[in-house]
Amino acid sequence: MLVSIAITLLVFGAELVGGFWTGSLALLSDAWHVLADAAALVLSYYALRQAQKPSDWLRTYGGHRVGVVAALINGVSLLVISALILYEAVGRFLHPVEVKSEEMFIIASVGLLANLGIALLLNRSVENNLNVRSAFLHVLGDALSSVAVILGGILMLVWGWFWVDPLLSVVIALMIWHGAYDITRRTLNILLEGAPPDLDLTEVVTTLREQSGVRDVHDLHVWNISDDIISLTAHLIIGEGVEPTAFLQNLNGVLLRKFGINHVTLQLERECPLAGQLFCRVGVEEKATLAH
């Protein structure tokens, strides 16, 4: 990861200088895309380090949310960068600028080779870690934008189509915006304690109710601690004769195997005034129940 960060920053520096030297907005846009990749790699590295820290009295869930907050900052900054690139591209369409296409082609080719090398370095850990996988996709996306810049350099070199440069910048900006929007949306959902968007809660509830001994499910809460850690809490009305230890072990196993929910807290009850209410207004029903 550290080697990948170093190579990415070198590519960013080369493309930034090359963009100003050749006058290519596409190369400058790709440079900012590379910087975004470097930020994603730094984020992934930092999040991995924080996630390894044990829970303590201050952070009972550990440091998993650090990566989420950093990802939100990264996503918002990418949205701003893409907007600035689009603004500059409109100006280039109105007032075309001649580009040193041969130099642009060479610099973009170096960037492509570097990105492919980084992708190979990260590929070994892609299957084992979602955090690394997101960084890998960032780098892969930048490799694709480098291919676009190379093709643009060829078109400008052979036919002198300098309008291709701002057009490529628009394409790269839209690629950045798409990824940044997805990152921002997912991180906001995590920080707002939203349910994982790819998890079917109806199926989760149905599965819980189908388990032997479960009469009702209520006060259900499902949220992400981090992108790959899902938490669930619920109250279960259980029947007579249920042995709690074996019952809970079975439910934990079912939720992990079927839905990937790896942090489960279940409260077992014989009866409850809130039974029948799958979701509750936190703090309101609890106070009413305690008052009775």
Explain this structure to me?
The chain is mainly alpha-helical. It folds into two domains: 2-191, Alpha-lytic protease prodomain-like; 201-291, Alpha-Beta Plaits. The protein has helices spanning 2-22, 25-51, 64-94, 101-123, 130-159, 164-191, 201-210, 244-259, 284-291; strands at 214-226, 229-238, 263-269. It has a three-stranded mixed sheet with strand order 1-2-3. It is elongated and about 80 Å long. The termini are far apart.
Sheet with the most strands, sense and barrel status? 3 strands, mixed
The CATH architecture of the largest domain can be given as Up-down Bundle
Strand arrangement, major sheet: 1-2-3
> Radius of gyration over alpha carbons?
25 Å
Taken together, the total number of domains comes to: 2
CATH superfamily of the largest domain: Cation efflux protein transmembrane domain
What is the SS-derived class? mainly alpha
